[in-house]
Amino acid sequence: MADILNKIGIGKENGNVSAHKSTQEMYEQTSKMNVPTLFDRYNSQQPQCKFGAQGVCCQLCSHGPCRINNKASAGICGATADVIAARNFLRLTAGGAAAYTHHLEIVARTLKAAAQGNTTFKIQDPAKLRAVAGAIGLDTSKSTEELAVALADAVLAEVKKSAEEPLVLVEKFAPKTRLEAWKKLGIVPGGTYAEIGDAITKTMTSIDTDPVDLLLTTLKVGIATGYMGLVATVTLQDILLGTPSPTHSSADLGIIDPKAVNIVAHGHIPLMATAIIKTAQSPEMQKLAKEAGASDIKILGSMCTGQELMQRSAGSAKGFAGQTGNWINQEYLVATGAIDLVMMDLNCSTPGLKSMADHFHTKVISVDKLVRMAGVTDHLDFTPEKADEQAKQIVRMAIDAYKKRNSGKIHIPKYRSEVMAGFSVESCKAALGGSWNPLIDAIKAGSIKGIVAVVGCTTAKTKHDTVSVKLSRELIKRNMLVINAGCVSSATQIEGLMRPEAAEQAGEGLKAVCKSLGIPPCINYGSCVDIGRIGVAVTEIAAALGVDPSALPVAASAPEYLEQKAVADGAFAVAFGLLLHLAPVPPVTGAPLVAKVLTNDVEALTGGKVLVELDPVKAADAIEAHINAKRAALGLPV
After folding, report:
1. Cis bond leading into 592, ω under 30°?
2. CA dihedral defined by 565, 568, 572, 575, rounded to 10 degrees?
3. Considering the chain, what is the average pLDDT of its residues?
4. pLDDT value at residue 525
5. pLDDT of amino acid 375
6. How far is the CA of 156 from the CAs of 107, 152, 173, 227, 527, in angstroms?
7. Which helix (H) or strand (E) covers residue 619, if one does?
8. What pLDDT band is residue 138 in, cutting at 50, 70 and 90?
9. Spatial distance between the Cα atoms of 154 and 108, rounded to a whole number of angstroms
10. Under a CB-based contact definition with an 8 Å cutoff, are residues 527 and 569 in contact?
11. Taking a C-beta distance cutoff of 8 angstroms, is the pair 301, 313 a contact?
12. Which of 254, 379, 438, 616 is a plausible cystine mate for 416, CB 3.0–4.6 Å?
């Protein structure tokens, strides 16, 4: 099998499929078991369809499917490669926006239930509640509970506005320079669902066949995602669950305790998992676990839900064991034989998860009404008012599964890494003495050359986490502070880049700053939704300097992007005025106009653009050149 993987590029470095020793070990373990996993299925898909890879395949009507090639320069209806690729790209963005909006609605409804005393959750950050409510014009003389209801209702109303009614959060929180640029382009978004609906309608057969308009609509949906799906969601989560502050935790498969009942919180929405952490430590549940022969009940983080738990629970909640890894780890996590229950709360739960669980005692359940998987029959869809009762049911399920465990099938890699987490806009400013000025001074002096948000997913195409880790290492060596969010956070955590000691791997200027503050060179901002925090930080830094975000020595990178939410994030970054490094190659290369607009022409409109580069060192070179150009334009030393 290794020989085959080498031929297609997955195992070029010593037959490895991953940047991490733990994942590599578990891949070898599942290979011995003759149980296929993601990398094997990737191999079976080779060679992949070049028309799909280039974005020039259309299946929208019964005339098709149509594909653009040397013999056919247009589809049967006359749609060109640019029309087809732009429609496909917009559909991806709209799908990502829809998933983020679903997340936002759940959090808003839970905040309202907490304010009304109808759930186990309590409001943890009333100061942020008042600040945000005041900023959007709500009456802050109300009680905390009344104000929380008003804010939740206001956000839910924003989601359901018409497309003709501009989003209040965009008007109140976007930099004025950005707002002016978006107004000129006609891309200030209205209600999120209305914008998603318009986008899907535009991409139907022969409705919007102007590739430029389709791309502008993509930016519009990206802006709606940025301020509703990202900023609004993370703000409400902070109000409800608490704003992250520095803490310490652990990452990698070595955190698994073979003697404990192990519950994996997997997905993106941390609400049910937060309730379970509390319930699992109750005397009742601990008694049941010990009667079953277990030493404890541990909650293990996986993917973005794990990042959210790490940001808030690591230092204060007994029972949270740490972060196991990102979405590619899910099959290997179960293959350790020590996982009793996996709780799926939103996207990136793969059918392969259930296939692997069938080889073990592991129970798989869903806790979100949108998550359904063949063979999974237990659904406890999160309901704020029933969260406490649902959490007890889930813990009992896990204990029952533990009783069926086969200790002879347990194989847990020994690897683990310590992690400094809990960074947020507020905690970063607090560490700097209450303002961004020390960071700005370090950037002006050149100790920190710039800031790069290395965020997003991971993919088998780039060999699990390899590009993310290599790029992050290259950037910090060049004195660029790296901020991680999403599955990339697990990549750098497992490789030790989120320990303060990792400052030794940074350039001399960044190393000195990190040591003086006691922080790592790769800062964990949390999950993919926490990319919204990065937007807020950039907005505040730009305001402090009196410039547009596009003028800052800042860049973004999604070095192993995977799915629709990442595409929506990327659309927001470009609209926001940032250089966006992207890999693998997005499905637009068969459309010359679309590729040219995204990688060049859009910069004159928004200040942002897409850089496609698969090699992490060359990507770091290009990002550094971009940051140097921004520094020079600001009159800073290069």
Report:
1. no
2. 160
3. 96
4. 96
5. 97
6. 10, 6, 17, 13, 22
7. helix 616-633
8. very high
9. 9
10. no
11. no
12. 254
Task: Average the pLDDT over 119-136 and give the result.
Answer: 97
List own/partner pairs for 175-180 with CB under 8 A and 24 or more apart.
175/539, 175/542, 175/543, 175/548, 175/549, 177/548, 177/549, 178/548, 178/549, 178/575, 178/576, 178/577
Q: Can you say whether the dihedral through the CA atoms of 356, 357, 359, 362 is positive or negative?
A: positive
Residue 316: pLDDT above 90? no
CA distance 86 to 208: 10
**Tokens found for residue 418:** 């310590």
- Helices then strands, counting H and E runs in the chain, come out as 28, 15
Tokens representing residue 365 in the block: 């359940």
Distances (CA, A) of 614 to 119, 191, 461, 581, 619: 47, 36, 10, 9, 7
Residue 311 CA to residue 326 CA, distance in Å, equals 15
Q: What is the mean pLDDT of residues 601-605?
A: 98
The rounded Cα 148 to chain-centroid distance in angstroms is 26
Q: What is the DSSP letter of 230?
A: I
User: Whole-angstrom Cα distance, residue 294 to residue 445?
Assistant: 55
Three-class SS of 340-381: CEEEECCCCCCHHHHHHHCCCCCEEEECCCCCCCCCCCCECC
The CA distance from 394 to 378, in Å, is 10
pLDDT at residue 9 in the model: 43
User: Which residues, other chains included, contact 215 with Cβ-Cβ below 8 Å and sequence gap of 6+?
Assistant: 86, 89, 90, 594, 597, 598, 602
Rg (CA), the chain: 24
Percent of the chain topping pLDDT 90: 96
Please determine, for residue 118, whether its predicted confidence score (pLDDT) is greater than 70. yes
Distance CA 21, CA 33 (A): 18
Contacts of 500 (CB under 8 A, 6+ apart): 420, 514, 515, 518, 519, 520
What contacts 126, CB < 8 A, 6 or more positions away?
144, 239
C-alpha span between 113 and 115 (Å, rounded): 5
Q: Which of 348, 341, 342, 332 is nearest to 268 (CA)?
A: 348
Residue 223 structure tokens? 């802006």
Q: Measuring CA to CA, which residue among 363, 360, 367 is closest to residue 341?
A: 363
What gap in Å lies between CA 466 and CA 350, rounded to an integer?
21
Rounded CA-CA distance 223/187 in Å is: 8
Instruction: Please give the sequence-ordered ranges of beta strands (E in DSSP) within 519-630, or none if there are none.
Output: 522-524, 554-558, 579-582, 609-612
CA–chain centroid gap for 331, Å, is 19
Residue 565 has a pLDDT of: 97
How many C-beta atoms surround the C-beta of residue 403 within 10 A? 13
pLDDT of residue 4: 34
pLDDT 10s digits, 15-62: 789 999 999 999 999 999 999 999 999 999 999 999 999 999 999 999
Helices 144-159 and 233-241 pack at an angle, to 10 degrees, of: 160
Q: Are strands 320-323 and 297-302 parallel, antiparallel or unpaired?
A: parallel
DSSP per-residue string spanning 276-331: HHHHHTSHHHHHHHHHTT-S-EEEEEEHHHHHHHHHHHTTT-TTEEEE---GGGHH
